[in-house]
Structure formats: C-alpha cells, structure tokens
Task: inverse folding
C-alpha cells in the first residue's frame, strides 16, 4: 500500500490519539503503534502455518489485533476476532466491579472506545483489511452452532484472565473442526514438572486468576477432548522496556474423542 505524506501523517495522528495499546504493531511508513509487546519477536515460538490460504481462523481475545491481522497476512480466508463487548464484561472481582459502577459515564465511554475498540479498527484500516471480522462475546459464549467451526482456533495468553479457563477451553473445542487445531499460549511461572499444577494468582483489582504449569495445560486439553498435544515451545515474553518478564508456554492441540 502506497501512502502519501498526508496519509502517513493522518495515520500517525490516529495512532497517537489512542492512549491504550497492547500490541506494538508496524503499520508501515515508519508508523508503529506504541503497545507494550512486540509479538513479531516471538512468532517463531507459535509455529503457525506459513500459509493459511483458505483457512477459517478464530482469534479469541484479539485485543489490538496483532495476531488477527497476522493470520490475514498469511492468507486466511476469514478471521473472526473475538473480544469482550465491554470493559465491564471482564471477570472482575465484586470489589472492583463496585468501583466500576461508580465511574462517570464519560470515563466508561473513553475506556470502551480506546481500550476495547479503536486500536483494532485503526490497525485494520491501515492494513486495508478485508477478511478480518470482529465479534463481541465472552469466551464462555462461543459455540459452533452460532459461529460454525474453524480450521485454527487461537488463544494468546488470555486464559489467566478468565475465572473458568477449563470452560473456556471447552467452548473453543466446540468451535474447532475435527481436523483443525487449537494453538494456545499461557503465562506460567511454574516449571515444566510432571505434576499438573494450577496456581491462583488473583488480586481484587486485577482480572488475573489462574496460572497453569505446562503439564497442567496439557492435562486440561486432554480432558477437553484434544487427544494430541504437539509443537510445544516455551519462551520469556518481555515488554518493549525489557522490565517485564513473563514465562510463556505454547502448544498445539488436535481434537479427537476417547470413548
């Protein structure tokens, strides 16, 4: 895509008007979103197919859209990017939710627009996206009856933010084609020992709940009818300042049933 100087400046202004960015995304022409995480640096650990031509892809917890648009760049025929319908729709604690209810409507509208919506839209417009569609749902509401099934279902480091990650995995399994796959990453501070361990990491003012060891995630996936786990990888996610370090486990899970 060839942009004029005026178009580049307009794009830069749109990016700067959004205060909250999760992903650091190169939009071309020297314009980069000021997000915390440059996921391009870690793509090799996810072992995505180099080409996704003809594939339907479900990106669960798309945030500002790095992975959704990466799937489109690799040729996916359709990418359905799932995000929560509102900031309030997170699995907040009762104490934090009471604080949300006291916030003025103008503040809520700003959060909805800048955190939940605008960044993803700006990136899509910058890329000239035509095959990425965003829908608004909690992970618990995903179903093949409504969305159909997908060749690839992706969940990037978001399961710790839901109170019931096992139900979330079951819902993603429902949306996975029999010959498809789930690619999932989790934040984990626990070693890859044989014992499957889940650790509660909840705080009243954060939407963080559970971390799982790699062995635990593997066991959960098996319980949710993913009979084969493959392409395991671990890496340490760092933010762009280098001050944040988050050990991360990635694996591919393939569906099946064991009767």
Result:
């Amino acid at each position: 895509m060839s942009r004029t100087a005026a178009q580049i400046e307009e794009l830069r202004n749109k990016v700067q008007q959004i205060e909250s960015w999760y992903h650091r995304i190169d939009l071309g022409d020297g314009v980069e979103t000021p997000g915390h995480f440059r996921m391009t640096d870690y793509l090799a650990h996810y072992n995505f197919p180099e080409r996704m031509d003809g594939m339907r892809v479900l990106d669960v917890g798309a945030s500002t859209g790095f992975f959704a648009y990466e799937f489109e760049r690799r040729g996916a025929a359709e990418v359905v990017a799932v995000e929560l319908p509102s900031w309030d729709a997170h699995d907040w604690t009762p104490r934090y939710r009471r604080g949300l209810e006291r916030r003025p409507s103008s503040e809520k509208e700003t959060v909805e627009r800048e955190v939940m919506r605008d960044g993803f839209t700006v990136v899509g417009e910058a890329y000239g996206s035509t095959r990425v569609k965003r829908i608004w749902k909690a992970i618990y509401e995903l179903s093949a009856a409504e969305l159909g099934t997908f060749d690839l279902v992706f969940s990037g480091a978001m399961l710790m933010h839901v109170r019931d990650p096992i139900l979330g995995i079951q819902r993603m399994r429902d949306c996975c084609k029999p010959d498809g796959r789930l690619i999932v990453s989790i934040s984990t501070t626990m070693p890859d020992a044989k014992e499957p361990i889940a650790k509660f990491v909840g705080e009243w003012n954060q939407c963080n709940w559970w971390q799982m060891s790699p062995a635990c995630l593997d066991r959960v996936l098996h319980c949710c009818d993913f009979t084969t786990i493959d392409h395991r990888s671990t890496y340490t996610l760092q933010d762009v300042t280098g001050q944040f370090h988050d050990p991360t486990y990635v694996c591919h899970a393939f569906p099946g049933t064991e009767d």
